[in-house]
Amino acid sequence: MIEYVFVYWLFVTLTLWVAWRAARDWASRLFLAAVFAAALASFGSQLALSGAVARFAVDAIDLSLFVFATLFALKRIEGWALWFAGLQGAAMLTMAAEALAGADQQWIFAMIRAFWAIPSLLVLAFGMRAFSLRHSPDRGADARFV
Fold it and tell me: Quick one: DSSP state of residue 67?
């Protein structure tokens, strides 16, 4: 379990670091800070709370991140933001399916829901990077990745 948590936080940190380096303005960096805060709050609530209370807290955090991401994407109309909001929406649909499923099937939706973090963070990091390279003033110059 410890190895999984370490690998997960390493993945979160690296993808958000790539996105932070590619962010072009304060609004994008505020968005990244909100994603990181949501990840920390979800992890902290799973550690500190138990059972249904922890699940409710994580659901509330995920729902607020979905609303924030959707509003941000609609305001900015950038591809990476729209994709991130869409993948977060898929996680919300999985959350609803998990709530409606029987007790013997809830673990399936919980596993699928945990999966959505991987593509959404990858879209966030590499989509923001591609957007910044596409819209950089020195587009013809050799752009460094880091």
Answer: H
Question: Residue 97 is encoded by which pair of tokens?
Answer: 């399916």
Per-residue pLDDT tens over the stretch 118-140: 777 777 777 777 777 776 665 54
Helices (H), 1-146: 2-22, 26-48, 51-76, 79-100, 106-115, 117-134
Residue 84's nearest CA partner among 94, 95, 70, 74 is: 70
Cα angle for residues 54, 89, 3 (degrees, 5° grid): 50
CB burial readout 109-138, b (16+ within 10 A) else e: beebbeebbeebbbbbbebbbebbeeeeee
CA separation, residue 18 to residues 14, 26, 63, 107 (Å): 6, 15, 25, 32
The two structure tokens encoding residue 104: 């013997």
Question: pTM surpassing 0.85?
Answer: no
